[in-house]
Amino acid sequence: MCTGVVSAKEVTCSRVTMYAIPLLLCLLRVTQAQDDKVEGVTEPSCDGPVPQYLKKPHTYFYHLEGNSDLDTILSLKFPLPDDHFFRDRWNWELEEGENIIRWVERDGPSHPDSLHRIGYGMGWKHRPTFTKPIPDDVQMKGLKNGIEMLKQTKKLEELIKKTGITLKDMSSKVHQLNFTYTKPQAKKSADVGYVLENALTVIAEGLEQEEVIDIQLMNNTRICSMFEQTPIQLPCEPNMPYRRLDGSCNNLREPGWGKSFTPFRRMFPPEYADNVSEPRGGKNGDGLPDARKVSLALKEFPRRFSNCFSVFQMSFGQFIDHDLTATPTAKDMDGNPLTCCNEKVLQDPSLLHPECFPLSIDVNDPFYSAYGITCLEFVRSLPASRCFFAPREQINQLTAYIDGSAVYGSTKEQSDSLRTFKGGKLKTVITKEGHELLPEAEGHQEGCNTKEDMENGLFCFRSGDERVNEHILLALLTTLFAREHNRIAMELSQLRPEWNDERLFQETKRIVAAEIQHIAYNEFLSGLLGPLLVRGLDLKPLQGGEFYNGYDNRINAGVANEFAAAALRLGHSMIPEHSYSKNSSGYYQATELNGVVFHPADMHKKNGIVNLLRGAFSQSIGKVDHAFSNQITGLLFKLENATGFDLVGLNIQRGRDHGLADYTVARRECGFPAIKNFDDLKTIFDADVVTMLRKLYKKVEDIDLFVGGMAEKALPGGLIGPTFACILSDQFIRAKRGDRFWYENAGQAGSFTKAQLTTLHDVSLARVMCDNFPEIERLQRWPLQLVGAQNPVISCDSLCLPKLDLTAWRP
Q: What count of other Cβ atoms lies within 10 Å of the Cβ of residue 562?
């Protein structure tokens, strides 16, 4: 155990396996107490003595490994087949003399298992059944319709501008400008997406959903040339050791895989009301319950808090989220936010933008009714441009790889704006106390910090992702890795004086990205999925400079829509009502969540960062379940307003906007028994949750993926239920096995040496914090966990926290 006492034996505390043991002990105590239903005990302390059932841990570990849900996930053949798998694998051509399509396997015959789909038969088909080609006249009719619909939308936007209708609600402005930001490249791509999806609406008249999905698997190079949307074929440099900012050429076989500004993948077939683009509706034409109504029902459940994890588990997850996904939403012709709830629009529906999908608020709403609010702003995500007719797919503006893009950006223009071009460093601002902060945000950021703060020089920040100011701890973690970059760049410049600025920047960026990957897979995922699942799926980093040989260029690392729009939003249930800061005297100050959302002013203040760190180290997160803070169910982004957003309702609405498959489909396609009625949920959810869902949804198949996934009981040793564990496992496996620049890979142009990898295997979040926030002096060994007997507070000088040895980069 790490005690903080410096001794030769302490070095063993830094090994990777040490993380899983205390975490598992903590979580198992919680699991056992819940299983035994000890009277008066809801969740025992993580720092108590080792309980009897762990005196012979192998017995209990065997029981856990024999858990049916764990066994099901471990039996899956990851990565799971998806839309890309079948579309990229099969091409079609017309057989001579016959009006049918002959399907040709792109890579030649394969083993039957490569097309095996775990589940119950309603996933992606092996070979589409729609065998009649789409006649040219039907295609042209559809395309003309799509072009006309786009023209009408542009005219409507001009009319709205002339009418002077603008979004005035500050909460909605902050959300649309600073949270669901839209880059010009995404908006340009979306125009073609609109044309193609409206064309498919005409083409798909009279077709069933499965037939529309079949069309999606058909390539059509003529569409590509017609809209100058040529397939991504970039000149790649196989021997280049550094990543491209946009993620292209990571996969030399498929240069566009994982690239920024490309469509999301689909794990499960989309469910749109019209099979093409209209937001998901209920089965058989029945309506779904209003998203706000579902949110209110979830709000009635009491919150439970973890005795194991600190708030940094939530914040680091948000940091990784902003490294992987950013979905653009519709904006007006000038790139400004749209309004769907403006009084003029509500009175004249002809002024309603077609991309509006607002949340309906009941006149008797227990919160919003007091303010006369009957409509919450919500605009749809932009459609992606593709070279074929297909149901709507959304755009990911970021790369699919864990590459530090939240720090460095995903475009050259953004990256260059963050660099000093001297000594390989990033731009920072030095405070009066000599501390580095992120550079000042360019222009005026509406709703970020108060007017008084801005006048006093307490500006908001700029980084590789526009959402950096969303939460003060997110800004803190981004600052941490920006400081780490500059610290490493300075030391490398001394070790390698012959390197110029570009070489120093790229080498440092490569090291920092490796650190982020290591922390994510060694510390964050072990808590999220649980050590048993992480170990069983080969997600655990190796040790002692051992190289990984699992890279596979047949794996598409692209981000799944179900991951971005549902599963990774699990962190929203972790959000506590307050943010804590703690001074050197042990005095706590609690600030309501909305006091630190788009309000990072405290980071400027003397001892502001160290006080935030002390507070976060000791603050628990909410459990990942169906209960949420009232700070996010009506007050989010409220700023000076009396009301704000309902994030839970927004998540549900976003899933419907994206046409995500319902919960029962996702669970079945992850290999679990089919859910046929509400009674089948009794062994999966708590009884009161089943009762609530039965009242809300007319059919069990209507349950939204986000709602069902959040309500599942957590896997033994993990934070989340099996369906979300399946989705997240698939994505993080792809992000590792499908990344040519994964930091442990051997034999690649960007591979580290054995000596370099050895020191990278010793990296920990605690060490990075100590090196860049030296004023903290002491912290727990694993900052994502709360302090306990298995996770003691140690000195930053402890040998439990080995430093990154940059001498391994000497010539």
A: 31
Supply the DSSP string of 741-755, one letter for each residue: T-TTBSSSTTPPPHH
Exposure class string for 771-791: b at 16+ Cβ within 10 A, else e: bbbeebeebbbbbbbbbbebb
pLDDT at 709 over 80: yes
- Angle formed at CA 25 by CA 24 and CA 29, multiple of 5 degrees: 110
Helix and strand numbers (H, E) in the chain are 28, 16
- Residue 772 near residue 483, CB atoms below 8 Å: yes
Report in angstroms the alpha-carbon separations of 559 from 263, 401, 407.
Answer: 9, 9, 19
Name 308's Cβ contacts closer than 8 Å, sequence gap at least 6: 23, 26, 27, 30, 46, 527, 785, 786, 788
Distance CA 286, CA 702 (A): 9
Give the bridge partners for 383, in sequence order.
Answer: 394
Beta bridge partners of 408: none
Core vs surface per residue 188-226: b (16+ CB within 10 A) or e? ebbbbbbbbbbbbbbbbeebebeebbbbbbbbbeebbee
Distance CA 171, CA 594 (A): 11
Banded model confidence at residue 12, pLDDT cuts 50, 70, 90: very low
**Strand boundaries in 86-151, DSSP class E:** 90-94, 101-105
Q: What is the pLDDT of residue 37?
A: 33
Secondary structure of the chain: what % helix, strand, coil (to 5)?
Answer: 45, 10, 50
The continuous run of DSSP H or E covering 581 comes out as strand 578-582
Is residue 412 a contact partner of residue 399, using CB atoms and an 8 Å limit?
no
Specify if 172 maps to a domain. Answer: yes
Euclidean distance between CA atoms 194 and 160, whole angstroms: 19
Cα–Cα dist 142/275, whole Å: 15
Domain membership flag for residue 399:
no
Neighbours of 625 (CB within 10 A): 24
Place of tokens 């073609």: 192
Rounded to the nearest angstrom, the gap between the alpha carbon of residue 595 and the centroid of all alpha carbons in its chain is 24
For 118, residues 6+ apart whose C-beta sits below 8 A from its C-beta are 75, 76, 77, 80, 669, 670, 671
- For residue 622, the surrounding DSSP H or E stretch is strand 620-622
Hey, what are 559's tokens?
Answer: 């981000």
> Which pLDDT value is given to residue 448?
87
Report the candidate in 27, 171, 8, 122 with the shortest Cα–Cα distance to residue 534: 27
Place of tokens 């034409």: 285
Strand residue runs (E) in 153-196:
none
* Residues whose CB falls within 8 Å of the CB of residue 421, separated by 6 or more in sequence, listed in order: 501
Q: Does the pLDDT value for residue 24 go beyond 60?
A: no
| Own/partner pairs, 248-251, CB within 8 angstroms, 24+ separation | 250/399, 250/401, 250/557, 250/739, 250/740, 250/741, 251/553, 251/556, 251/557, 251/738, 251/740
Q: For residue 124, name the pLDDT band (cuts at 50, 70, 90).
A: confident
Closest to 325 in 3D by CA, of 621, 569, 522, 36: 569
156 in a domain, yes or no? Answer: yes
Identify the burial level of 443 via C-beta atoms within 10 angstroms of its C-beta, where 0-12 means exposed, 13-18 middle and 19 or more buried: exposed
pLDDT of residue 207: 82
Give the integer Cα–Cα distance in Å for 483 and 488. 9
Number of domain units in the chain:
1
Strand partners, 79: none
3-state helix/strand/coil string of 672-693: CCCCCCHHHHCCCCCHHHHHHH
| Structural domain boundaries enclosing 230 | 83-288+380-392
Within a domain: residue 717? no
Distance CA 405, CA 425 (A): 15
User: Is the pLDDT score of 8 beyond 70?
Assistant: no
Question: How far apart are the two ends of the chain, measured CA to CA in Å?
Answer: 37
CA distances to 243, 513, 739 from 748, rounded to whole Å, are 12, 16, 11
As annotated, the active-site residues are: 322
Min mean pLDDT across 107-111, 119-123, 578-582, 740-744 is at 107-111
